[in-house]
Structure formats: C-alpha cells, structure tokens
Amino acid sequence: MQDDVAHVGQVYLWSRVGATSVLVSAALGGAGGTGASYLPSVSDDATKVAYSSSATNLLAGPVTGSHAYLRDLTAGTTVLLDRTPAGAVADGDVFEVDLAGGGSRVALTSSATDLTGAPVHSAFRQLYVRDLATGATRLTSRTAAGGPGNGYADTPSNTGSWGPALTGDGALVAFASQSTDLVPAAPSWSNAYVARAG
After folding, report:
1. CA 117 to CA 121: how far, in whole Å?
2. Mean pLDDT over the full length of the chain
3. Neighbours of 74 (CB within 10 A)
4. Which runs of E-coded beta strand occur in 64-116?
5. Higher model confidence: residue 9 or residue 5?
6. What proportion of the chain, given as a percentage, has pLDDT over 90?
C-alpha cells in the first residue's frame, strides 16, 4: 500500500477477506492524490469506487477544483465522471457522489453549468445521473418543464439538492432538495424525492 505522501485525506478500500487495504485515490504513478479525497461509494462487487476529490494529479492532465472520479480497481484506471458532453472538465465543483451497486450509473451533486447538452444556470447545487455505459449525463433535480430546481435562497448554504442514493440497478435515485418546483404543489422546502435515473 502506498503511503499518503501528500499528507491529505485519501480514499482506501479495505478487504475483510484478506485484511488488506488498497489506495483508491491514486495518481498515475501510484502515489496518493495531492488534494483531499472523500465520500467514496463502492460497487457491490468491490471492483469500482466513485469518490470526490480536489487532487490535481489523478489524471494524465491537471484538473483543478473538486470533481468526481471512478477508480476501476481491476484495471487500475481512474476516469473523470463530471465531464461535459464534449469530454472536457465541468466548470463547477462536485459535492457528493453515489455509485449504483451494479456499477451502471453514478449520481452526483454539482454546481456546474455544462454537464448536459443544454446549459444549466442555477445558484444552487443540482443533482445529475451519469450513465457509465453511454457517457450521457441527465439533470435529475429538474422541473416538469425540464429546468433546474429553484433551490431555496434563504438558507445560508443555498444547497439546492443533495444526498443522492441510487438503487442497485441504477434505475431510480432518491435525494433531498430545498427546491419547491420539482413536483406540483410541493408542500414546502426541504423534502425527499425519488426520480427515474435514466
């Protein structure tokens, strides 16, 4: 196991069977990331781990800000999850990630505006689901008209939507939101929702 040479928080996967730990937030050379990595989510077969990180050295090229990554422990590869349709790094930070147990989709909360084909302009964090097979990303915290949820500006954090939890097959995602326009006649701000992820 590589030492935490960067002296920042890293993500590890510990196996109860072999009582061993593997560094998940690893750079190309095998050392730890240069920034804090956190909130890991593991597939049911423990071969893939999604996580957030502010490290700049997890990919071949430098990436700044807090972003979402997927580590394939079998292949020893790391890919960026919050990408634009053209494959570029998204223009906002990622706050949370949740990987479906089967490894088919990942849900993430982000302040980015360019994760989908149409720009999403919002002062609040929005919830997205990315299909790992097709690479398509869908705005999930959306209104009936397809726009982003309106959040709730009176709270200090202006959180918007948070706490994604995908079903094992990635078909549904549960989340919390302060938005009042995700469903008709929402009772008030800060409610729990379930939406189709695909």
Report:
1. 12
2. 91
3. 9
4. 67-72, 77-80, 94-99, 105-110
5. 9
6. 72
Bridging pattern class, strands 20-23 and 37-42: unpaired
Domain range list for the chain: 81-196
pLDDT single digits (tens) 19-63? 899 999 999 888 999 999 999 999 999 999 999 999 999 999 889
Contact 96, 126 (CB under 8 A): no
What's phi and psi for 74, nearest 5 deg? Answer: -75, -45
The span from the CA of 95 to the CA of 73, in Å, is 23
User: If we measure between CA atoms, which residue out of 83, 131, 79 comes closest to residue 105?
Assistant: 131
Q: What is the average pLDDT across 136-149?
A: 93
What is the number of H-type helices and E-type strands within the chain?
Answer: 0, 13
Read off the pLDDT of residues 168-197 as tens digits, 9 standing for 90 and up. Answer: 999 999 999 989 889 987 767 788 999 999
In order of 13, 16, 18, 29, 59, the CA distances from 21 in angstroms are 5, 9, 9, 18, 22
DSSP code per residue over 124-175? SBEEEEEETTT--EEE-SB-TTSPBP---TTSTT--BEEEEEE-TTSSEEEE
Structure tokens at 2: 């590589």
Q: What does R_g of the chain's alpha carbons equal in angstroms?
A: 17
Distances (CA, A) of 85 to 30, 140, 157, 171: 29, 16, 28, 21
Q: Which residues pair with 83 in a beta bridge?
A: 89
